[in-house]
Amino acid sequence: MKPKKFNTVSEFKRISANSVKSRDRSRKSENPTPRQFDQFLPWLCQQMHICPHVAVERITKEKNISIRNRGYQLSRSKSIFSTIQSALDFTKIPNHSLSLTTSYSDGYNENTIVIKSYYNNFNQLIELAIVDCPPSINRKVIQAISLCLPFHSYLKKFKINGNGLTESVLYEIGKLLPHSNITDICLDDTYLPEGNYYVLLDKLNNLQNLSLCKCKINDDVCKKIAEKLHNEMPASNTLMTLDFTSNNITNSGARHLGLMLRQNRTLLYLGLADNLLDDVGASHILKPLMVFSLTEDEVYELRKRKFRYAAKKLEICKEHEKQLIAQMNSEEDKENNQPVICRKSIGRSKHLYIEPNSVNVKELAAKNIMDTFGKFEDVFDEDNVVYRNGHLYSLGNLKLCYLNLAYNHLSYFSLKKLCEVLKYQTNIKQADCRGLLRVVVNGNNIPTHCELLNTIESYLVNAVANYATQARSRSRVNMSKYCVRK
């Protein structure tokens, strides 16, 4: 085949330029997309000139679902124990039930950041893990991951264990959380001299489970984290499990956690195993679980919240009144444009239509606002407090249901306090009253067998049975509603 001849130099340049453009388009089309996370992230890090090198291992989590029980599993309400247990299982190292489906080998260079990406059976990315990374993680790697988040809505879990975590990396993780669906963060066995783990709780996000085991957390870091979980803080409405296992928390840190438990009504699990607590520290944790007197500061903050609620409600009510009056006036104008059938008297013809009654408008607006705005709800509202001798008392934190105090320095006195708490919570008759369902105290300076332990176990067994009965009744109601919809 003879080579093509070009009549002019301009024609040769034009055809050459078109061939270069088509070659560039083909190269661009070969580039991975953000949906192809395993190929896209290393490519993007290379384009961003990120050092050290980044590699991704793809792992599929195989989960067998019984076909016979599948409908029941999809329709039943999720148990609180399954919620907590799934959060605790997330912190464990994956076992042989995971199947490796990538061509990567284990012989990585020591300067390589290996990111493990876990997929479910539907080929959806659900978890990322960086375990025992030899070099420090570049903060740009987290920025590159954040660019992929909009394309992976099922990504719920993020784990960094061992080396590699730095203050700047933790800051970048805190920045991406509000723009993701990540609910579980595990930073076990990581140590930051700055101890700024609290940055994960600064902004409103979907974080529900936070594990900080073996992080050498002291009382100062514990205090900063506890303050982020106080009432009206963003994380106080989302975080359900907090694990401080194997740290350096003493009675001082437990005191700050106790102050947090006075106000927080979302936290379900608190892990303090293998710390430096004694009976005083355990008392700080257990006291908020019973009735307690509100301090002057708590009463003052409660009044401020009530005032803000009333002011907001009044503002919305006034706006609603204006809308109702405008709606009535528009309807009146339509009626005025129609011919009048009869009039009682000529003298009253100008006052045939009466102005809207302001009292009726206010009552109607208040009723509509109450239906939509709702009543004042607070941790210390009228349903959760009692008046005794002129003082305001809270009924206590009845939401925390799982407490781990194993392997500390507790004695028989902590058992007596725990028994007192369980007896009090058993006698509380309140809707949505859960209380402690499981307490772990093994590994302490307590007797192996005694009457008090039997009493505590009896209280816990009855509490779990009552909760299971309530859960089954709710499940039947949900199932009946589902069947009616079907």
UniProtKB/TrEMBL annotation:
InterPro entries: LRR-containing_protein_71, LRR_dom_sf
Organism superkingdom: Eukaryota
PANTHER family per UniProt: LEUCINE-RICH REPEAT-CONTAINING PROTEIN 71 (PTHR46984:SF1)
Protein name (record): Leucine-rich repeat-containing protein 71
Lineage: Eukaryota, Metazoa, Ecdysozoa, Arthropoda, Hexapoda
